[in-house]
Amino acid sequence: MLYYGYWRSSAAWRCRIAFNLKKIAPEFVAVHLTRDGGAQRTEEFRVINPQKRVPALDLNGAVLTQSLAIIEWLEETIPEPALLPDDPWSRAQVRAFALAIACDIHPLQNLEVQQYLRGKLNLEQSAVSDWLGHWIGNGLLACEALLGSQPSNQAFAFGASPTLADICLAPQLYSAERFGISLNDMPRLRTLGASYADHPAFVDAHAHNQPDSEEWFWGI
Amino acid sequence: MLYYGYWRSSAAWRCRIAFNLKKIAPEFVAVHLTRDGGAQRTEEFRVINPQKRVPALDLNGAVLTQSLAIIEWLEETIPEPALLPDDPWSRAQVRAFALAIACDIHPLQNLEVQQYLRGKLNLEQSAVSDWLGHWIGNGLLACEALLGSQPSNQAFAFGASPTLADICLAPQLYSAERFGISLNDMPRLRTLGASYADHPAFVDAHAHNQPDSEEWFWGI
Protein backbone atom coordinates (compact mmCIF):
# COMPACT_ATOMS: atom_id res chain seq x y z
CA MET A 1 0.00 0.00 0.00
CA LEU A 2 1.34 3.43 -0.99
CA TYR A 3 0.41 6.62 0.81
CA TYR A 4 0.92 9.88 -1.06
CA GLY A 5 1.24 12.76 1.37
CA TYR A 6 3.02 15.90 2.43
CA TRP A 7 4.34 16.72 5.89
CA ARG A 8 2.24 19.83 6.46
CA SER A 9 -0.99 18.84 4.73
CA SER A 10 -3.71 18.62 7.40
CA ALA A 11 -5.59 16.02 5.39
CA ALA A 12 -2.53 13.80 4.95
CA TRP A 13 -1.74 14.25 8.63
CA ARG A 14 -5.19 12.93 9.59
CA CYS A 15 -4.42 9.74 7.69
CA ARG A 16 -1.04 9.37 9.39
CA ILE A 17 -2.68 9.47 12.83
CA ALA A 18 -5.19 6.83 11.70
CA PHE A 19 -2.44 4.61 10.25
CA ASN A 20 -0.60 4.82 13.57
CA LEU A 21 -3.68 4.07 15.64
CA LYS A 22 -4.55 1.10 13.41
CA LYS A 23 -0.91 0.02 13.47
CA ILE A 24 -0.30 -0.08 9.75
CA ALA A 25 2.56 1.54 7.88
CA PRO A 26 1.87 2.15 4.18
CA GLU A 27 4.92 3.03 2.13
CA PHE A 28 5.20 6.82 1.98
CA VAL A 29 5.54 8.79 -1.25
CA ALA A 30 6.28 12.47 -0.66
CA VAL A 31 4.39 14.91 -2.88
CA HIS A 32 5.98 18.33 -2.44
CA LEU A 33 3.08 20.76 -2.62
CA THR A 34 5.04 23.99 -3.07
CA ARG A 35 8.34 23.27 -4.82
CA ASP A 36 8.46 23.97 -8.57
CA GLY A 37 4.78 24.85 -8.72
CA GLY A 38 3.69 21.78 -6.78
CA ALA A 39 4.22 18.09 -7.54
CA GLN A 40 0.48 17.56 -7.05
CA ARG A 41 -0.13 19.54 -10.24
CA THR A 42 2.04 17.37 -12.49
CA GLU A 43 0.48 15.13 -15.13
CA GLU A 44 2.08 12.18 -13.35
CA PHE A 45 0.15 12.90 -10.17
CA ARG A 46 -3.07 13.91 -11.89
CA VAL A 47 -3.39 10.31 -13.04
CA ILE A 48 -3.23 9.23 -9.40
CA ASN A 49 -5.64 11.89 -8.14
CA PRO A 50 -7.49 14.13 -10.59
CA GLN A 51 -8.20 16.45 -7.67
CA LYS A 52 -4.46 17.22 -7.55
CA ARG A 53 -4.45 16.89 -3.79
CA VAL A 54 -3.00 14.72 -1.08
CA PRO A 55 -3.60 12.31 0.53
CA ALA A 56 -4.11 9.43 -1.84
CA LEU A 57 -3.84 5.75 -1.04
CA ASP A 58 -2.75 3.26 -3.70
CA LEU A 59 -3.80 -0.32 -3.06
CA ASN A 60 -2.36 -2.51 -5.80
CA GLY A 61 -2.99 0.17 -8.39
CA ALA A 62 -6.47 1.16 -7.21
CA VAL A 63 -6.50 4.63 -5.72
CA LEU A 64 -8.58 6.03 -2.89
CA THR A 65 -8.64 9.75 -2.13
CA GLN A 66 -10.07 12.05 0.55
CA SER A 67 -8.79 11.67 4.09
CA LEU A 68 -12.16 10.97 5.69
CA ALA A 69 -13.01 8.31 3.09
CA ILE A 70 -9.62 6.69 3.69
CA ILE A 71 -10.14 6.70 7.46
CA GLU A 72 -13.70 5.32 7.23
CA TRP A 73 -12.31 2.57 4.98
CA LEU A 74 -9.62 1.77 7.56
CA GLU A 75 -12.29 1.71 10.25
CA GLU A 76 -14.37 -0.79 8.28
CA THR A 77 -11.45 -3.06 7.36
CA ILE A 78 -9.39 -2.81 10.58
CA PRO A 79 -12.03 -2.32 13.27
CA GLU A 80 -9.67 -2.16 16.27
CA PRO A 81 -8.99 0.17 17.90
CA ALA A 82 -12.29 1.81 16.98
CA LEU A 83 -12.12 5.41 15.78
CA LEU A 84 -15.89 5.81 16.04
CA PRO A 85 -18.16 4.92 19.00
CA ASP A 86 -20.55 1.97 18.79
CA ASP A 87 -23.96 3.57 18.82
CA PRO A 88 -25.18 5.43 15.74
CA TRP A 89 -26.06 8.72 17.43
CA SER A 90 -22.64 8.97 19.10
CA ARG A 91 -20.93 8.02 15.85
CA ALA A 92 -22.84 10.80 14.15
CA GLN A 93 -21.75 13.34 16.77
CA VAL A 94 -18.10 12.39 16.24
CA ARG A 95 -18.49 12.61 12.48
CA ALA A 96 -20.24 15.99 12.78
CA PHE A 97 -17.34 17.38 14.77
CA ALA A 98 -14.83 15.99 12.27
CA LEU A 99 -16.82 17.47 9.38
CA ALA A 100 -17.09 20.86 11.10
CA ILE A 101 -13.31 20.97 10.67
CA ALA A 102 -12.95 19.11 7.36
CA CYS A 103 -15.75 21.00 5.58
CA ASP A 104 -16.01 24.35 7.31
CA ILE A 105 -12.50 25.28 8.48
CA HIS A 106 -9.76 23.46 6.62
CA PRO A 107 -11.00 24.11 3.04
CA LEU A 108 -10.77 27.85 3.68
CA GLN A 109 -7.18 27.83 4.91
CA ASN A 110 -5.56 25.29 2.65
CA LEU A 111 -2.62 25.97 0.39
CA GLU A 112 -4.59 26.38 -2.82
CA VAL A 113 -6.95 28.93 -1.29
CA GLN A 114 -4.08 30.92 0.19
CA GLN A 115 -2.34 30.88 -3.16
CA TYR A 116 -5.52 32.26 -4.78
CA LEU A 117 -5.87 34.99 -2.15
CA ARG A 118 -2.24 36.09 -2.51
CA GLY A 119 -1.96 35.50 -6.24
CA LYS A 120 -5.18 36.17 -8.13
CA LEU A 121 -6.69 38.51 -5.52
CA ASN A 122 -3.33 40.10 -4.69
CA LEU A 123 -4.24 40.41 -1.00
CA GLU A 124 -1.75 41.86 1.46
CA GLN A 125 -0.52 39.67 4.30
CA SER A 126 -2.79 41.48 6.76
CA ALA A 127 -5.88 40.66 4.68
CA VAL A 128 -4.82 37.02 4.37
CA SER A 129 -4.30 36.91 8.14
CA ASP A 130 -7.76 38.39 8.69
CA TRP A 131 -9.22 35.72 6.40
CA LEU A 132 -7.47 32.92 8.27
CA GLY A 133 -8.37 34.39 11.62
CA HIS A 134 -12.03 34.65 10.63
CA TRP A 135 -12.50 31.09 9.39
CA ILE A 136 -10.19 29.27 11.76
CA GLY A 137 -11.04 31.37 14.81
CA ASN A 138 -14.82 31.24 14.41
CA GLY A 139 -14.67 27.64 13.27
CA LEU A 140 -12.74 26.49 16.32
CA LEU A 141 -14.99 28.51 18.64
CA ALA A 142 -17.91 26.53 17.21
CA CYS A 143 -15.95 23.30 17.76
CA GLU A 144 -15.39 24.28 21.39
CA ALA A 145 -19.16 24.79 21.72
CA LEU A 146 -19.92 21.47 19.98
CA LEU A 147 -18.03 19.75 22.83
CA GLY A 148 -20.10 21.58 25.45
CA SER A 149 -22.06 18.51 26.49
CA GLN A 150 -18.96 16.32 26.82
CA PRO A 151 -17.35 15.83 30.27
CA SER A 152 -14.38 18.19 30.40
CA ASN A 153 -12.11 15.67 32.10
CA GLN A 154 -12.00 13.34 29.12
CA ALA A 155 -8.57 12.90 27.57
CA PHE A 156 -10.03 13.01 24.08
CA ALA A 157 -12.87 14.90 22.45
CA PHE A 158 -15.50 12.19 22.83
CA GLY A 159 -14.09 9.93 25.53
CA ALA A 160 -11.03 8.20 26.90
CA SER A 161 -9.62 7.20 23.53
CA PRO A 162 -9.07 9.07 20.28
CA THR A 163 -11.73 9.20 17.58
CA LEU A 164 -12.08 10.67 14.14
CA ALA A 165 -12.84 13.98 15.88
CA ASP A 166 -9.39 14.12 17.46
CA ILE A 167 -7.79 13.01 14.22
CA CYS A 168 -9.23 16.07 12.51
CA LEU A 169 -8.65 18.46 15.38
CA ALA A 170 -4.94 17.80 15.95
CA PRO A 171 -3.68 19.17 12.61
CA GLN A 172 -6.19 22.02 12.80
CA LEU A 173 -4.79 23.13 16.15
CA TYR A 174 -1.32 23.16 14.59
CA SER A 175 -2.60 25.35 11.76
CA ALA A 176 -4.21 27.68 14.28
CA GLU A 177 -0.86 28.09 16.02
CA ARG A 178 0.95 28.46 12.72
CA PHE A 179 -1.36 31.24 11.61
CA GLY A 180 -1.38 32.99 14.95
CA ILE A 181 -4.96 32.24 15.99
CA SER A 182 -5.53 32.58 19.72
CA LEU A 183 -7.08 29.64 21.57
CA ASN A 184 -7.63 31.75 24.69
CA ASP A 185 -11.39 31.27 24.57
CA MET A 186 -11.13 27.55 23.88
CA PRO A 187 -10.01 25.83 27.09
CA ARG A 188 -11.39 22.46 26.04
CA LEU A 189 -9.49 22.51 22.73
CA ARG A 190 -6.28 23.53 24.51
CA THR A 191 -6.63 20.56 26.88
CA LEU A 192 -7.17 18.25 23.91
CA GLY A 193 -4.05 19.65 22.27
CA ALA A 194 -2.10 18.66 25.38
CA SER A 195 -3.50 15.11 25.12
CA TYR A 196 -2.34 14.85 21.52
CA ALA A 197 1.14 16.07 22.44
CA ASP A 198 1.34 13.13 24.85
CA HIS A 199 0.03 10.36 22.60
CA PRO A 200 2.59 8.43 20.52
CA ALA A 201 0.29 7.97 17.50
CA PHE A 202 -0.28 11.72 17.35
CA VAL A 203 3.34 12.65 18.04
CA ASP A 204 4.64 10.32 15.35
CA ALA A 205 2.15 11.76 12.83
CA HIS A 206 3.06 15.38 13.60
CA ALA A 207 4.11 17.49 10.63
CA HIS A 208 7.53 18.08 12.15
CA ASN A 209 8.30 14.38 12.48
CA GLN A 210 7.94 13.31 8.86
CA PRO A 211 10.65 12.17 6.42
CA ASP A 212 9.83 15.15 4.20
CA SER A 213 9.53 17.75 7.00
CA GLU A 214 11.27 21.03 6.36
CA GLU A 215 12.30 23.72 8.76
CA TRP A 216 9.13 25.18 10.14
CA PHE A 217 8.17 28.51 8.73
CA TRP A 218 5.05 30.65 8.73
CA GLY A 219 4.70 31.32 5.04
CA ILE A 220 2.91 29.09 2.59
CA MET B 1 -37.85 14.89 14.55
CA LEU B 2 -37.24 18.49 13.45
CA TYR B 3 -35.17 19.41 10.43
CA TYR B 4 -33.77 22.95 10.28
CA GLY B 5 -33.02 23.91 6.72
CA TYR B 6 -33.21 26.47 3.96
CA TRP B 7 -34.46 25.92 0.44
CA ARG B 8 -31.24 26.86 -1.34
CA SER B 9 -28.66 25.48 1.09
CA SER B 10 -26.80 22.66 -0.68
CA ALA B 11 -26.12 20.93 2.61
CA ALA B 12 -29.77 21.03 3.68
CA TRP B 13 -30.77 19.84 0.20
CA ARG B 14 -28.55 16.76 0.56
CA CYS B 15 -30.46 15.82 3.69
CA ARG B 16 -33.81 16.31 1.96
CA ILE B 17 -32.83 13.85 -0.77
CA ALA B 18 -31.76 11.34 1.88
CA PHE B 19 -35.00 11.80 3.85
CA ASN B 20 -36.97 11.14 0.67
CA LEU B 21 -34.94 8.07 -0.27
CA LYS B 22 -35.30 6.66 3.26
CA LYS B 23 -38.99 7.60 3.23
CA ILE B 24 -39.03 9.73 6.35
CA ALA B 25 -40.47 13.19 6.71
CA PRO B 26 -39.05 15.19 9.64
CA GLU B 27 -40.96 18.32 10.51
CA PHE B 28 -39.38 21.24 8.65
CA VAL B 29 -38.29 24.46 10.36
CA ALA B 30 -37.24 27.15 7.86
CA VAL B 31 -34.14 29.13 8.78
CA HIS B 32 -33.93 32.10 6.44
CA LEU B 33 -30.22 32.55 5.76
CA THR B 34 -30.31 36.02 4.22
CA ARG B 35 -33.28 37.98 5.59
CA ASP B 36 -32.51 40.45 8.42
CA GLY B 37 -28.89 39.38 8.64
CA GLY B 38 -29.69 35.68 8.67
CA ALA B 39 -31.80 33.70 11.14
CA GLN B 40 -28.89 31.27 11.52
CA ARG B 41 -26.95 34.02 13.30
CA THR B 42 -29.55 34.65 16.01
CA GLU B 43 -28.88 33.65 19.61
CA GLU B 44 -31.94 31.41 19.38
CA PHE B 45 -30.38 29.37 16.59
CA ARG B 46 -26.85 29.42 17.98
CA VAL B 47 -28.13 27.28 20.84
CA ILE B 48 -29.30 24.73 18.29
CA ASN B 49 -26.13 24.84 16.19
CA PRO B 50 -23.10 26.80 17.39
CA GLN B 51 -21.80 26.64 13.83
CA LYS B 52 -24.70 28.92 12.81
CA ARG B 53 -25.40 26.77 9.79
CA VAL B 54 -28.08 24.53 8.40
CA PRO B 55 -28.93 21.70 8.34
CA ALA B 56 -29.53 20.60 11.89
CA LEU B 57 -31.64 17.69 13.04
CA ASP B 58 -33.38 17.79 16.41
CA LEU B 59 -34.28 14.41 17.84
CA ASN B 60 -36.19 14.92 21.09
CA GLY B 61 -33.99 17.86 22.01
CA ALA B 62 -30.68 16.29 20.99
CA VAL B 63 -29.19 18.00 17.96
CA LEU B 64 -27.13 16.56 15.14
CA THR B 65 -25.41 18.82 12.62
CA GLN B 66 -23.45 18.42 9.38
CA SER B 67 -25.25 16.96 6.38
CA LEU B 68 -22.90 14.00 5.86
CA ALA B 69 -23.05 13.03 9.54
CA ILE B 70 -26.85 13.20 9.38
CA ILE B 71 -26.95 11.04 6.25
CA GLU B 72 -24.48 8.45 7.64
CA TRP B 73 -26.68 8.30 10.76
CA LEU B 74 -29.75 7.71 8.59
CA GLU B 75 -27.84 5.01 6.72
CA GLU B 76 -26.97 3.23 9.98
CA THR B 77 -30.44 3.47 11.50
CA ILE B 78 -32.57 3.00 8.35
CA PRO B 79 -30.44 0.71 6.18
CA GLU B 80 -32.84 0.42 3.23
CA PRO B 81 -32.52 1.58 0.55
CA ALA B 82 -28.76 1.65 0.97
CA LEU B 83 -27.02 4.91 0.12
CA LEU B 84 -23.60 3.25 0.23
CA PRO B 85 -22.48 0.03 -1.50
CA ASP B 86 -21.78 -3.11 0.52
CA ASP B 87 -18.07 -3.62 0.17
CA PRO B 88 -15.69 -1.29 2.02
CA TRP B 89 -13.59 -0.22 -0.98
CA SER B 90 -16.67 0.74 -3.01
CA ARG B 91 -18.15 2.54 0.00
CA ALA B 92 -14.91 4.48 0.29
CA GLN B 93 -15.03 5.48 -3.39
CA VAL B 94 -18.56 6.80 -2.98
CA ARG B 95 -17.58 8.69 0.16
CA ALA B 96 -14.50 10.12 -1.57
CA PHE B 97 -16.64 11.49 -4.39
CA ALA B 98 -19.11 12.99 -1.91
CA LEU B 99 -16.27 14.56 0.09
CA ALA B 100 -14.67 15.98 -3.06
CA ILE B 101 -17.83 18.08 -3.28
CA ALA B 102 -18.56 18.60 0.42
CA CYS B 103 -14.97 19.53 1.37
CA ASP B 104 -13.40 20.92 -1.78
CA ILE B 105 -16.16 22.65 -3.73
CA HIS B 106 -19.14 23.62 -1.63
CA PRO B 107 -17.24 25.32 1.25
CA LEU B 108 -15.73 27.79 -1.23
CA GLN B 109 -19.03 28.85 -2.75
CA ASN B 110 -21.33 28.97 0.21
CA LEU B 111 -23.22 32.02 1.37
CA GLU B 112 -20.86 32.99 4.17
CA VAL B 113 -17.82 32.91 1.91
CA GLN B 114 -19.56 34.95 -0.77
CA GLN B 115 -20.62 37.47 1.86
CA TYR B 116 -16.98 37.76 2.97
CA LEU B 117 -15.74 38.20 -0.59
CA ARG B 118 -18.29 40.90 -1.36
CA GLY B 119 -18.31 42.51 2.07
CA LYS B 120 -14.93 42.42 3.79
CA LEU B 121 -12.87 42.06 0.60
CA ASN B 122 -15.13 44.37 -1.39
CA LEU B 123 -14.72 42.28 -4.55
CA GLU B 124 -16.53 43.25 -7.74
CA GLN B 125 -19.06 40.83 -9.20
CA SER B 126 -16.57 39.77 -11.90
CA ALA B 127 -13.99 38.78 -9.28
CA VAL B 128 -16.60 36.84 -7.32
CA SER B 129 -17.64 35.10 -10.54
CA ASP B 130 -14.00 34.22 -11.25
CA TRP B 131 -13.68 32.76 -7.74
CA LEU B 132 -16.82 30.66 -8.15
CA GLY B 133 -15.80 29.56 -11.63
CA HIS B 134 -12.39 28.50 -10.40
CA TRP B 135 -13.49 26.35 -7.46
CA ILE B 136 -16.71 24.96 -8.88
CA GLY B 137 -15.39 24.50 -12.43
CA ASN B 138 -12.13 22.81 -11.49
CA GLY B 139 -13.81 20.88 -8.70
CA LEU B 140 -16.48 19.43 -10.97
CA LEU B 141 -13.89 18.61 -13.65
CA ALA B 142 -12.10 16.52 -11.03
CA CYS B 143 -15.42 14.87 -10.13
CA GLU B 144 -15.95 13.98 -13.79
CA ALA B 145 -12.49 12.37 -13.79
CA LEU B 146 -13.17 10.54 -10.52
CA LEU B 147 -16.03 8.76 -12.32
CA GLY B 148 -13.74 7.74 -15.18
CA SER B 149 -13.66 4.07 -14.21
CA GLN B 150 -17.43 3.83 -13.82
CA PRO B 151 -19.55 2.49 -16.73
CA SER B 152 -21.01 5.52 -18.47
CA ASN B 153 -24.43 3.94 -18.96
CA GLN B 154 -25.23 3.84 -15.24
CA ALA B 155 -28.19 5.96 -14.21
CA PHE B 156 -26.37 7.13 -11.09
CA ALA B 157 -22.77 7.95 -10.26
CA PHE B 158 -21.85 4.56 -8.84
CA GLY B 159 -24.52 2.24 -10.17
CA ALA B 160 -28.19 1.77 -10.90
CA SER B 161 -29.42 3.45 -7.73
CA PRO B 162 -28.55 6.71 -6.00
CA THR B 163 -25.80 6.90 -3.40
CA LEU B 164 -24.30 9.54 -1.17
CA ALA B 165 -22.31 10.65 -4.22
CA ASP B 166 -25.46 11.60 -6.14
CA ILE B 167 -26.92 13.22 -3.04
CA CYS B 168 -23.96 15.60 -2.95
CA LEU B 169 -23.73 16.11 -6.69
CA ALA B 170 -27.35 17.14 -7.35
CA PRO B 171 -27.30 20.41 -5.38
CA GLN B 172 -23.79 21.15 -6.63
CA LEU B 173 -24.95 20.92 -10.25
CA TYR B 174 -27.72 23.39 -9.44
CA SER B 175 -25.15 25.79 -7.96
CA ALA B 176 -23.00 25.40 -11.06
CA GLU B 177 -25.94 26.43 -13.22
CA ARG B 178 -26.87 29.24 -10.86
CA PHE B 179 -23.38 30.69 -10.99
CA GLY B 180 -23.01 30.23 -14.75
CA ILE B 181 -20.41 27.44 -14.72
CA SER B 182 -20.29 25.50 -17.99
CA LEU B 183 -20.61 21.72 -17.85
CA ASN B 184 -19.56 21.37 -21.49
CA ASP B 185 -16.51 19.28 -20.60
CA MET B 186 -18.42 17.10 -18.17
CA PRO B 187 -20.68 14.78 -20.18
CA ARG B 188 -20.96 12.25 -17.36
CA LEU B 189 -22.10 14.88 -14.86
CA ARG B 190 -24.64 16.22 -17.35
CA THR B 191 -26.08 12.73 -17.78
CA LEU B 192 -26.31 12.34 -14.03
CA GLY B 193 -28.10 15.66 -13.80
CA ALA B 194 -30.71 14.30 -16.19
CA SER B 195 -31.17 11.23 -13.98
CA TYR B 196 -31.78 13.43 -10.95
CA ALA B 197 -34.34 15.50 -12.85
CA ASP B 198 -36.27 12.26 -13.41
CA HIS B 199 -36.14 10.81 -9.91
CA PRO B 200 -38.98 11.71 -7.53
CA ALA B 201 -36.78 11.82 -4.41
CA PHE B 202 -34.48 14.30 -6.11
CA VAL B 203 -37.26 16.35 -7.69
CA ASP B 204 -39.13 16.68 -4.40
CA ALA B 205 -35.92 17.79 -2.65
CA HIS B 206 -35.09 20.43 -5.26
CA ALA B 207 -34.56 23.96 -3.96
CA HIS B 208 -37.47 25.24 -6.04
CA ASN B 209 -39.94 22.80 -4.54
CA GLN B 210 -39.64 23.70 -0.86
CA PRO B 211 -42.18 25.41 1.40
CA ASP B 212 -39.73 28.28 1.88
CA SER B 213 -38.64 28.58 -1.78
CA GLU B 214 -38.49 32.09 -3.15
CA GLU B 215 -38.45 33.30 -6.68
CA TRP B 216 -35.21 32.11 -8.16
CA PHE B 217 -32.57 34.75 -8.51
CA TRP B 218 -28.86 34.76 -9.20
CA GLY B 219 -27.67 36.98 -6.38
CA ILE B 220 -26.91 35.81 -2.88
From TrEMBL, chains A, B:
Domain annotation GST C-terminal: ranges: 87-215
Alphabetic keyword roster: Isomerase, Plasmid
The family this protein is said to belong to: Belongs to the GST superfamily. Zeta family.
Top-level lineage group: Bacteria
GO cellular component: cytoplasm
Organism the protein comes from: Rhizorhabdus wittichii (strain DSM 6014 / CCUG 31198 / JCM 15750 / NBRC 105917 / EY 4224 / RW1) (Sphingomonas wittichii)
Pfam families: GST_C_2, GST_N_3
Domain GST N-terminal: 1-82
Alphabetical GO biological process terms: glutathione metabolic process; L-phenylalanine catabolic process
InterPro entries assigned: Glutathione-S-Trfase_C-like, Glutathione-S-Trfase_C_sf, Glutathione_S-Trfase, Glutathione_S-Trfase_N, GST_Zeta, GST_Zeta_C, GST_Zeta_N, Thioredoxin-like_sf
Alphabetized Gene3D superfamilies for the sequence: 1.20.1050.10, Glutaredoxin
Listed name of the protein: Maleylacetoacetate isomerase
Enzyme class: isomerase
GO molecular function, one term: glutathione transferase activity
EC annotation from Swiss-Prot or TrEMBL: 5.2.1.2
